[in-house]
Design brief:
- The protein is about 15% helix and about 30% strand.
- It is an alpha+beta fold.
- It has 6 domains: about 200 residues, no CATH class; about 90 residues, no CATH class; about 60 residues, Beta Barrel (OB fold (Dihydrolipoamide Acetyltransferase, E2P)); about 60 residues, no CATH class; about 80 residues, no CATH class; about 90 residues, no CATH class.
- Strands 20, 21, 22, 23, 24 and 42 form a 6-stranded antiparallel β-sheet that branches. Strands 8-13-14-9-10 form a 5-stranded mixed β-sheet, with helices on one face.
- The relative contact order is 0.07.
Length: about 725
């Protein structure tokens, strides 16, 4: 588990990657590099470092985007060809005028020049710190594979075209790399890594022959390059009969093996590299398609193609879906839930009513990968990013770090303590840091420091996005109200400062706007359920406008008029007792609710005066609960209103957004509130079975889609 978790951490966060520049004999430690999280070619860097081909810079950094120098390239090729013997290379003479005999790279440069792998730049110079293009490094790798530079035309005016063609045909040119440009250090690692698996060549002829044509011109005919047979029973991939050709790693690294039959914790098809009996790491295969936002069923169809879709449709191939490492039962979804020709629906599992299930669908910040095997079986994996906050500094004695879940966010991990036996980077986190987590089967797999944005909110759209200092940030799926276990509609005070926590894709996984009213619940009644061993339940109204009958936890200490709610329900002489108060709550694992008293709260029962009594007026600064002018409480843009109009319950945030509420003459109503430390109402509950609830605007709007959400612009206008 230790090695697997570290590998997964490499895959998703690159938090433990090792560097690549060759300056010493031993493989670098993951803790030696200050910029390891910037590396993207993770598998290549990990394997090549473990083999001793690449190591860290003398400054302790990897510098993945830095350009490869000529002397670094010489050292890399020497290590690939000679292994540890490359360290013994020395020179007692000056081969090039700008390479002294005691320069760290002199032996490597001398060997490459002697073997015709890398020549000087002219006038007796080598330019050891000069930049190297991808073409030049590809030429070096091809020569290492056995290609003859003269025979293949790697010299002369057409050398670049010939090298580029052979690099592609040999499979050593990284996808998307422009070979004519200077090559970065991590792209060089990728090319060297692909060279490991490339076929070596030999020649049927001894070299080239010049033939004069009848018109007097000359044509050079080279010997033909052929792959050579493997000289060992098993090849590096473990096939018992070999593949009858020899790859570079089989000849130069005979202890290197590759297991292609495994899966990682997220159930992605994966490979494991081993050097002898030492595991280098497990790495997921490259997906046939990758999405980090909402994907349509038609896009997944395009990714797998018509033939694969037909095999899935007729049952000759299988579709498997995994969410955070857990398999989704095939009986729970249909093929066209994920893959459909010309489909424009969101890909994801749907319930019996055809609605998407929040935790089993594609969306912002959900890493969705599609894998197709040789038999056209398809595996779809979805990986969510979760957020937590570090609680206390790293405990070096016990080797552990404690994390806290955050209000308004989902959390799939069952244990929020992580240990240094699983992760090498725990000592880099401090108390209060926000961290990003991936979770498989309830267990944390990766942990990385999150990026944060601090600034003034200038606009927002509920359940969708928030604009900070002019930049719009969309919510991660784990933070939207549909998936978060304790989420509420987020409302911001415009032009006030907030903190946003971003996932690795730039989506919001947490905002401190969730702090405040998310844990309040209004209890209107309590009752005993009856029987010998009575249970107790309550009628509850939540701040998001939902309501339910909840079970009271036996540890609930909430009181009303001096007695606990459980005592009141137990001793009730009626079928129920009226409470009409706000409480703080914690939902327990068994589904019951533990209620606690809140300070500075109150409630009032009132009767509508002649002509009606205003309780709330849109745009006002107060909520009214009596006859005199002093019977009022202050409200602001953060106040949450739960309005129960004879069973029709709605939730509003902000006094500007609440509708006009008037208790009709002679009718009875209830107003209850919770105050914050600044003297404003955190939450207000208003109820009557006969009151007027109306908007304060004469504007009309046609609603095209009933799933539209409320937005607030930079001027504070709500629409």
């Amino acid at each position: 588990m230790r090695n697997l978790k570290r590998t997964l951490s490499l895959l998703l966060t690159a938090a433990m990657l090792i560097g690549m520049m060759v300056v010493g004999a031993s493989a670098a430690s993951s803790s030696d590099f200050t910029d390891s999280d910037e590396i993207t070619n993770i598998e290549a860097a990990q394997v090549m470092t473990a083999l001793g081909v690449f190591e860290g810079t003398d400054s302790g950094a990897f510098d993945p985007n830095g350009t490869l120098t000529r002397e670094q390239a010489a050292a890399i090729i020497c290590r690939m060809l000679l292994g540890e013997d490359a360290e013994e290379l020395t020179t007692n003479s000056v081969v090039f005028s700008d390479v002294s005999a005691d320069r760290w790279s002199a032996g490597y440069i001398g060997y490459c020049a002697q073997q015709g792998i890398l020549a000087g730049t002219g006038n007796g110079a080598f330019d050891p710190e000069g930049e190297l293009t991808g073409l030049a490094f590809a030429k070096m790798c091809l020569v290492a594979l056995g290609y003859n530079a003269d025979s293949e035309g790697y010299v002369g005016t057409d050398w670049a075209i010939n090298v580029a063609a052979d690099a592609v045909n040999a499979g050593i040119s990284p996808s998307g790399l422009v070979l004519a440009n200077v090559i970065s250090r991590e792209d060089a690692a990728q090319m060297a890594f692909q060279t490991l698996e490339a076929d070596m060549v030999t020649y049927t002829g001894s070299g080239s022959t010049s033939v004069t044509t009848p018109d007097g011109s000359s044509v050079v005919i080279t010997g033909a390059a052929d792959t050579i047979a493997a000289d060992q029973e098993d090849d590096y991939r473990g096939y018992s009969d070999g593949d009858e050709v020899q790859q570079f790693c089989e000849y130069y690294f005979p202890d290197l093996t590759k297991d292609e039959t495994g899966y990682d914790s997220f159930q992605r098809p994966s490979v494991t590299w081993l050097d002898g009996r030492t595991e280098i790491g497990t790495f997921s295969e490259t997906a046939d398609a990758t999405f980090t936002t909402t994907a349509e069923t038609g896009e997944l169809y395009d990714a797998v193609g018509r033939t694969v879709y037909s095999d899935l449709d007729d049952g000759s191939a299988d579709l498997d879906v995994y969410v955070d490492g857990e398999e989704v039962d095939y009986a729970d979804f249909d093929l066209d839930d994920f893959i459909a020709r010309n489909g424009d629906d969101t890909a994801g599992v749907r319930d019996g009513d055809g609605d998407l299930i929040s935790g089993q669908r594609t969306g912002n910040g959900v890493l969705t990968e599609v894998f197709v095997d040789d038999d056209n079986n398809v595996t779809i994996t979805m990986i969510h990013t979760y957020v937590a906050q570090v609680e206390g500094d790293y405990d070096s004695t016990d080797g552990e770090l404690d994390l806290d879940a955050l209000d308004g966010t989902a959390m799939a991990a069952t244990d929020l303590t992580v240990y240094d036996e699983d992760f090498d980077n725990l000592d880099t986190f401090s108390d209060g840091d926000y961290v990003l987590l991936t979770v498989a089967n309830g267990e944390i797999q990766t942990i990385a420091l999150a990026d944060t944005v601090d600034g003034d909110v200038t606009a927002y759209t509920e359940g969708s996005s928030v604009t900070v200092d002019g930049t719009r940030y969309y919510y991660n799926r784990t933070f939207e109200s549909g998936l978060a276990t304790d989420s509420t509609a987020l409302d911001y005070d415009l032009n006030e400062a907030y903190t946003l926590v971003l996932d690795e894709y730039g989506y919001v996984v947490y905002s401190d706007a969730t702090e405040g009213t998310s844990d309040y619940v209004f209890i209107s009644r309590v009752a005993a359920t009856g029987g010998v061993s009575s249970d107790y339940e309550a009628r509850a109204y939540f701040t998001d406008g939902t309501y339910a009958v909840i079970d009271l936890d036996e540890d609930s200490e909430a009181t009303h008029n001096g007695d606990t709610l459980i005592e009141i329900a137990k001793d009730s002489t009626n079928s129920y007792e009226t409470i009409n108060e706000w409480y703080d709550y914690d939902e327990q694992s068994d589904g019951s609710y533990e209620l606690n008293d809140v300070s500075d709260s109150g409630s009032e029962t009132l009767t509508g005066a002649s002509g009606g009594t205003d309780i709330a007026v849109s745009g006002s600064a107060y909520v009214y609960y009596g006859d005199s002018s002093g019977d009022r409480i202050r409200a602001n843009s953060s106040t949450v209103f739960v309005i129960n109009d004879d069973g029709d319950v709605s939730s509003y945030t902000g006094i500007r957004n609440v509708p006009d509420v008037t208790l009709r003459s002679g009718e009875t109503g209830v107003v209850a509130w919770v105050m914050d430390d600044d003297g404003y109402a955190d939450a207000v509950y208003i109820y009557s079975d006969n009151m007027s609830v109306s908007g304060g605007s004469d504007d009309r709007v046609y609603i095209l889609d009933d799933s539209a959400s409320r937005s607030v612009d930079s001027e504070g206008n709500s629409y």
